[in-house]
């Protein structure tokens, strides 16, 4: 099985409650992304979202207890460093 992947991937997380995989990346690129894959079965996943983040953003953390996905966005010429927070949608 092959799926489209995020360039400069940094982290990969499994969300058991939603049966999804979150991949974050973007280090060394002008824009980062979070890719979300929906699990169909043990061997099949569909890309359901491709969300732009911030230049160089990549390091992430999935909190199942809070139902939140956090991505670290480093400072750049236009923005201060930040923690981006995402909430999975049904």
Describe this structure in words.
This protein has 90 residues and is mainly beta. The protein is built from no helices and seven strands. The chain has strands at residues 9-15, 20-25, 33-41, 44-52, 60-63, 68-73, 82-86. The strands form two sheets. It has a four-stranded antiparallel beta sheet, with no helix packed on it. A hairpin with a 2-residue loop joins strand 3 and strand 4 (44-52). The protein is globular. The mean pLDDT is 92.
Topology:
Layout: E1 9-15, E2 20-25, E3 33-41, E4 44-52, E5 60-63, E6 68-73, E7 82-86
Characteristics:
mainly beta; 4-stranded antiparallel beta sheet; 3-stranded antiparallel beta sheet; globular
